[in-house]
Amino acid sequence: MSPAAVVAEEDGRSKGSSTVASGSSQSLDCFSQNGAGLKERNYLGLSDCSSVDSCASTVPSLCDEKKENMNLKATELRLGLPGSQSPVRDPDLYTLSSAALDEKPLFPLLPTKDGICSLQKTGTTVVSGNKRGFADTIDGFSQAKFTGSTGMSTMLSPRPSGAQPSAMKEMPNKLQERPCQTNNGTSHNHAGASVSGSAPASKAQVVGWPPIRSFRKNSMATTSNKNNDEVDGKPGVGALFVKVSMDGAPYLRKVDLRSYTTYQELSSALEKMFSCFTLGQCGSHGAPGREMLSESKLRDLLHGSEYVLTYEDKDGDWMLVGDVPWE
Amino acid sequence: MNYFPDEVIEHIFDYVVSHRDRNALSLVCKSWYRIERFTRQRVFIGNCYSITPERLIQRFPGLKSLTLKGKPHFADFSLVPYDWGGFLCPWIEALAKSRVGLEELRLKRMVVSDESLELLSRSFTHFKSLVLVSCEGFTTDGLAAIAANCRFLRELDLQENEVEDHKGQWLSCFPDSCTSLVSLNFACLKGEVSLGALERLVARSPNLKSLKLNRSVPLDALQRIMMRAPQLADLGIGSFVHDPDSEAYIRLKNTILKCKSITSLSGFLEVAPHCLAAIYPICPNLTSLNLSYAAGIQGSELIKLIRHCGKLQRLWIMDCIGDKGLGVVAMTCKDLQELRVFPSAPYGNPAAVTEKGLVAISMGCPKLHSLLYFCHQMTNAALITVAKNCPNFIRFRLCILEALKPDPDTLEPLDEGFGAIVQSCRRLRRLSLSGQLTDQVFLYIGMYAEQLEMLSIAFAGESDKGMLYVLNGCKKLRKLEIRDCPFGNMALLTDVGKYETMRSLWMSSCEVTVGACKLLAKKMPRLNVEIFNENEQEDCSLEDGQRVEKMYLYRTLAGKRKDAPEYVWTL
């Protein structure tokens, strides 16, 4: 049940063309301590790819066969309500799939919406986030959705994500091919030090873990956002990427909230980003003249009743973009 | 039994202050019970649902100070659904109706409404002190009522509450006649306050010893405030950002030099590191330093600062200090008693703290008795060393950020390490476990942790035996909270009488079933056994074999509570 694709938030290394999304880094797949025997989970059930990057640092030593079998169970495709957990509880599963249990199940009909790990979130956000996303998918709301909480900062693996803003913007076109990255690998490389266990963004998003008071968690998010603007010369927490999905689009986009300063900017940027889909729908890929027409049509579409910008906040509620001051 | 007249006994009882001692006095004989009851001024109620307000008032008519705690501890980590309970309202209403002259109210994890605050402010003429910790449900309007109506208010202390800002200038509601403030803490408020009103309030409060500002108070206002309150002992800084060449900053530096009495410093909710040098002069006097919300201070600046703080007894920081920084703490702060190291990001900073930092601290700070430590990894060897170096632990809370992580050197569980801690620290009262743990650690805890009162367990254990070791062994256990452990019905039901000796038990994502909980509730009528049924589906038939997601049970004399929301089933 682990999500298929791990969004390459760091350097967008693609692992060869045949790579299908591997198990997420958060379903702590069976990695041995010294990096050998890496195993990927393949949501399409194709043969395991061996070309995953180093996730050696992260995972604890749950490398016996037994755990691997458990893992298989945890990662099997299942339909079910998002956030619902398997009634058969195995505590071992927690190491491997605590996130998996909380995440959206794979829904083969809509490969674009599923299997994508959301960017750094606290446990609560992810759990509800996935739930909402899934529900929205099913109900087919015609809303462009943010999947991500605007309040949260990229505190995890900061350097990697800060370093590659441009690589992040574009998701690979083909559905079948996703870079199977784990954040650990890259942050491991970047950080230099071999600190094990520091699995950032896509790590197990278990509700209430680590046990930090929600007040403190929320404070950390807002403070760290503000202070990073003031610290000179430090990349610090560079970019604040959030996923944006538009209903009906074949794939999602990621935007760096820090590169905008007003809601207006953001919404025009999103317009441009998603215009290709709408243009596609209008069937006008061709002549520039017609494109121009369609652009204005798009604007009407986006500002009219068809699409509104919404986002999910840290409490898991869908909010209309624009109410809260930009900062 | 009574060789002395009542007045003499009363006088003696005046010297007995602690709750436990007082409780013990009241059990000696009927006449001591009676005398104690009428002279009791301070009451502590660890679970607001364990007794009704009416009964409290009836027994202690002379009540002046009340402490109430509401939600279970795991509510802090979003494990308790919204609206579970812990409402202040019925308590205030009952107290207001009675003739109790309440002067002090301390609340933790309770739901406090503006109406309750308003009623509180109007009902007790000598009300002096309000302390709210991790509460919610109120807005700045409620605070305005407190400010406006409590004429002899000495203390308004808001710690980590979720307060809605209604932009109503609550601080301006303190009347000009209010000159009694000793402690004011509004650091958790998100909105702005009238800086003029704040300065005037400080100016007319000669007894003000503790002041904690929120983020909206800028550096120049801080300087003016400090000018008017050179007697401050405890300062929480809001915003500490300014151009270091500016006049305001230079004025601040000079003002700080005059504040010789500051021994406790906190806040720095917004901070520009280049401004920090201004506080170096007061650092040598500090006994308490809380920089756990100062996200703007990086590791190297933290270390620079701490080198000046030779007298620290209490230090709360973030893990960006790193293992090296903790080494500096160990060298500098020889009197350190309490240390908390928080993660600077939900899953920690890659360059953060490990077992090495903790070992360094244990070597340099033998007086350490309270620890909260979030880290990336821990080894058995380190824990054994720490246990040897610091046998005085009262509170030992270790959180290895990655759940179920074993000792990275030996790949073994951390049973031996924690075992060493409980064996060495005979006075241990509070323990939080993490990392990979088998039933063995619980055997150690049951055997050695004789003074243990509170135990928090997550992702640990292998079988019911683990929980049973604890329940059988820890005679003084009061609060047990367990999440995501394979403890089931056998563990729950083997010794049901135990729970009446405890305040509460929390079990979530374990293996207990509805049937077992029902059985327990039936056997023990003086326990409330609550199950949270958070399924959105309407068919709420609870079958006995169904696994319980969240269970919270507590002893009570008040019976089943009437304010439980729909998803809470009291069996």
UniProtKB/TrEMBL annotation, chain A:
PROSITE patterns: PB1. Residues 239-327 form the PB1 domain. One of its GO terms (biological process) is regulation of DNA-templated transcription. The keyword GTP-binding does not apply. The lineage of its organism: Eukaryota, Viridiplantae, Streptophyta, Embryophyta, Tracheophyta. The keyword Protein biosynthesis does not apply. Its main location: nucleus. Belongs to the Aux/IAA family. It is found in: Nucleus. Keywords: Auxin signaling pathway, Nucleus, Repressor, Transcription, Transcription regulation. Residues 179-189 have a biased composition (Polar residues). Residues 15-27, 191-203 have a biased composition (Low complexity). SUPFAM superfamilies: CAD & PB1 domains. Residues 1-29, 149-203 are annotated as: Disordered. GO terms for cellular component: nucleus. InterPro entries: AUX/IAA_dom, AUX_IAA, PB1-like. Homodimers and heterodimers. Aux/IAA proteins are short-lived transcriptional factors that function as repressors of early auxin response genes at low auxin concentrations. Repression is thought to result from the interaction with auxin response factors (ARFs), proteins that bind to the auxin-responsive promoter element (AuxRE). Formation of heterodimers with ARF proteins may alter their ability to modulate early auxin response genes expression. This is Auxin-induced protein.
From TrEMBL, chain B:
Keywords: Auxin signaling pathway, Developmental protein, Nucleus, Ubl conjugation pathway. Pathway: Protein modification; protein ubiquitination. It is found in: Nucleus. GO terms for biological process: auxin-activated signaling pathway; pollen maturation; SCF-dependent proteasomal ubiquitin-dependent protein catabolic process. The keyword Iron-sulfur does not apply. One of its GO terms (cellular component) is SCF ubiquitin ligase complex. This is Protein AUXIN SIGNALING F-BOX 3. Residues 4-45 form the F-box domain. It comes from the Eukaryota. InterPro entries: COI1_F-box (IPR041567), F-box_dom (IPR001810), Leu-rich_rpt (IPR001611), Leu-rich_rpt_Cys-con_subtyp (IPR006553), LRR_dom_sf (IPR032675), Transp_inhibit (IPR041101). GO terms for molecular function: auxin binding. The keyword Cytoplasm does not apply.
